[in-house]
Design brief:
The structure holds two protein chains of two kinds. By secondary structure, chain A is an alpha+beta fold. Chain A contains two helices and ten strands. Chain A is elongated and about 55 Å long. By secondary structure, chain B is of the alpha/beta class. Chain B has a single domain, classed as Pyruvate Kinase, Chain: A, domain 1. In chain B, 32% of the residues are buried. In chain B, 60% of the residues lie in helices and 13% in strands. The chains are: A alpha+beta, B alpha/beta. Chains A and B meet through strand 5 and strand 8 of A and helix 2, strand 6 and helix 6 of B.
Amino acid sequence: MANLKFEIVTAERVVYSEEVNMVTAPGVEGELGVLPRHTPLLTTLQPGEVRVKKEGGEEVIMFVSGGFLEVMPDKVVILADTAERAEEIDVARAEEARRRAETRIAERAETMDVARAEAALRRSLIRLKVAQRRRRER
Amino acid sequence: MPSTREIRRRIRSVKSTAKITKAMEMVAASKMRRAQQRVIAARPYAQKMREVLADLAAQPQSAEVLHPLLQQRTVQRVAVVHVTADRGLCGGLNANMNRRTSAFVLDQKLPSSLVTVGRRGRDFMVRYGRDVRAEFTQLGDYPELINVLPIARVVMDDYMAGAVDQVYLAYTQFMNTVIQRPNIRLLLPIEPAEFEGRRPSEYIYEPGPAAVLAELLPRFVEMQVYHAVLESIASEHSARMVAMRSATDAANDMITSLTLTYNKARQETITKELLEISAGAAALS
């Protein structure tokens, strides 16, 4: 079976770079799965989890907070704003971020940017979900 | 001729200076290595982004509205993002950058404002009464993208609000360990470079080319600012390393020549004492 070269890069580093069989990513218009020989595509991403299937069925889960996905027939690149592998996620910090976002939304302060707080909440929730899923699998 | 004791004291003081400069050299060397790695690590992202941007810009524009960050306007006001180090003791690095930006601002012959990054640049520009719009200091030696986002935000907001019509990015480009060059280039409006490459042009854009472009452009600006900051930091550390190395060398030279003087002085005292003794003995006999 043909393979895909898959890379996640952020402005700071290359997070992931491997040969894989399939990539699933959270596109703005919905989750999308990419197999080899996909049509060239470029889409923006929303915060969510990226799943990778490797040769032999091994699955790797990662979190991205947004960015771009570029698909070429033999290559997939994610330009992520931030990206973490599930095992790198700092659960305590994500938990803390979730609490912060929740209180901020609950208070509804005059000066608050509701949309921003909600986005922050969504990000931290997904981060936690990705981290938890990985824990269960072990 | 200074007394032997004075010379000894001098030698001691120069030696401790040499120790300090040597330590600073070594610290700068290790920081430089890390800073260089970060510049390199940021490259794939930047490269990819340029490719995508070039491709998008080459698309037949749906033409009705050009994204504001791409719009060329008649230039009435310019802004310069001026990146320097927080600290000195790094040779002519900050001075060169300050001079370059000042000259550039004067050349514009237009009202201009500055956004300074780094204490050295801010102090200089404030002293010369330039219009400093915003200042950022204490970014540290290893800033992350998130730390430089506010800088990009300020200039983009100003640009979108029409407060400025052109934004330049002034930073020290890291050529190699011994050469760092002050560099100024256009940040806004964005001018996508022609990209010659083998890109399959038949892309599907989701949700659409304009939407993707609108997401991409601010990030492109952020990335460029981040890159400039990284380059400046790498330059700072290598300039400091070189400056400290020559300071250490100079101190060692000084120690050598002082030791020589010291030995001469000591020899002289001994000779004088001997002479006095033998003269005394001669007078007695």
